[in-house]
Amino acid sequence: MIKILANDGIDPIGKKLLEDAGFFVDTNNIPQEELPEKLKNYDAITVRSATKVRKALIDACPNLKVIGRGGVGMDNIDVEYAREKGLSVYNTPASSSLSVAELVFGSLFGAVRFLPDSNRKMPVEGATNFNGLKKAYAKGVELRGKTLGIVGFGRIGREVAKIAIGVGMDVLAYDLFDFNPELDIVLGGGTTVKVSVKKATLDEIITTADFITLHTPFIDKALLGTEELAKTKKGVGLVNISRGGLIDELALIDALNSGQVSFAALDVFDNEPTPREEILKHPKISLTPHIGAATNEAQERIGVELASLIIDHFNK
Ligand SMILES: NC(=O)c1ccc[n+]([C@@H]2O[C@H](COP(=O)([O-])OP(=O)(O)OC[C@H]3O[C@@H](n4cnc5c(N)ncnc54)[C@H](O)[C@@H]3O)[C@@H](O)[C@H]2O)c1
Ligand SMILES: O=C(O)[C@H](O)COP(=O)(O)O
Fold it and tell me: Which pLDDT band, with edges at 50, 70 and 90, does 33 fall under?
C-alpha cells in the first residue's frame, strides 16, 4: 500500500480522495528533527510552508518518490535536487490566488484606518484615552483614486489587480517578464468586464505608488531595501504577503519610524515562526501569521488538487 505522510496536514476532502484511491494517509505532524528516521517508511510526503524538505532529508529516505507542496512557494523544498534524485515534486499554484489577494485588501483596508493598532490599544487604553485614540486615528485615507503598485504580475498579482480596479484604484504593474496587462473581471451575476492595468518599471512603482504590494517568489536580495524605501512617495503603505526577505526588515523599521513609510502589512517574515520583536511590536505594522492561503475554500482546492496529482502519479 502507498503510504503518504501529510506532515503539515491536508484538507479532509483531499485526504478522503487519497484513501478512496487505496492509499494510507498519515496526518501526524512529525517534528523536523525526527523526519530523517520516520519518513523512511513512506512513499510520499506532502507539506505546506512549515516542514522543510532539504537534501539531507531526501538522502535519508530512499523510498520517497513524491514530494507534494500544498500551496505555491517551494522555497522550503530542494526541488532541483529532489528531481535529480528521480523524485517527482508537485505544487498547487493556482488554488490559493484569490484568498491571498483578498488578504491583501483585508490588510490594506485595515491599515489605512488603523484597525490593527486600534485593536491593540483600545482594550488597554480605551477608558482613559478614548478621545486621544480617536484623534490618533483621525488621518485615515480612502483607497479609491489612489495608485497601487503591484510587483510580480503572476497569478496572485493579477487577482490583486482585479480587486483594486473594482475598488477604483489606479494600478501600476511590474514583472520581470513581459505580460498581458488585460484582465477579465467576473462580476457578481456572471457578467465579465475587460479591464487593463498600466505597465510600469519597478522604479516607477517605487517612486509614484501610494501603496506597493509584492507578489514575486522568494528572492535572495530584498526588492525594497534602504535605497528603494528612500525613493518612495512619502507615507507610502506596503504589503508583503509573499515571502519574508522581500522587504528588508531593518530598513523598514527605520522607514516607519521616520514616517517615510506610513504602514506595512506583513504576513511573512525573515524568521518564521519567530519574527523579530521590533516587527511584532511596531504600532505601524499590521501582522498576520502567514495566513494568505488559510481559507476553507483555498485549502479544499489545494487538498483536492494535491490528491489528484498524487493519485495520477502512482496510478500511471
Ligand atoms: N502568504 C501566503 O500565504 C502565500 C500564499 C501563496 C503564495 N505566496 C507567495 O506568493 C508568491 C507568488 O505567487 P503567485 O501564485 O502569484 O506566483 P506566480 O509564479 O504566478 O507569479 C509570480 C510572478 O513574479 C514574477 N517575478 C519573479 N521574480 C521577479 C522579480 N525579481 N521582479 C518582478 N517580478 C518577478 C514572475 O515572473 C511571476 O510572474 C509565491 O511564490 C509565494 O511565495 C504566499
Ligand atoms: O506559498 C504558499 O502557498 C504560501 O506561503 C502558503 O503557505 P502555507 O501552506 O504554509 O499556508
Answer: very high
Closest by CA position to 102, among listed 265, 223, 270: 265
Distance from chain centroid for Cα 243: 6
Q: Is the CB of 294 under 6 A from ligand 2?
A: yes
Ligand 1 pocket mutation pick from 218, 242, 295 by most atoms within 8 angstroms of CB? 242
What pLDDT, on a 0 to 100 scale, did the predictor assign at position 126?
93
Ligand 1 centre to CA of 270 (Å) is 17
Residue type, 286: S
Which atom of ligand 1 is the closest one to the Cα of 75? Answer: 43
Length of the chain: 316
Strand partners, 5: 26, 45
Give the number of other CB atoms < 10 A from CB of residue 144: 9
Return the ligand 1 atom nearest residue 217 CA.
41
Quick: pLDDT tens for 100-136: 999 999 999 999 999 999 999 999 999 999 999 999 9
Q: Exactly one of 48, 282, 290, 301 is catalytic; name it.
A: 290
Q: Which grid cell sits at 133?
A: 485614540
**CA terminus-to-terminus distance, the chain:** 15
Is the separation of the CB atoms in 212 and 238 below 8 Å? yes
Interatomic CA distance for residues 89 and 83, integer angstroms: 7
Annotated catalytic residue, options 243, 282, 301, 305: 243
Active site (annotated) includes residue 290: yes
Residues 6+ apart with CB under 8 A from 251: 222, 224, 225, 226, 229
Q: Output the CA–CA distances (angstroms, integers) from residue 82 to 6, 38, 302, in the order listed.
A: 18, 18, 21
Q: What is the ipTM of this complex?
A: 0.99
How many Å lie between the centroid of ligand 2 and the Cα of residue 304?
16
Q: How far apart are CA 133 and CA 160, in angstroms?
A: 31
Q: Structure pTM? A: 0.97
Residue with cell 478614548: 130
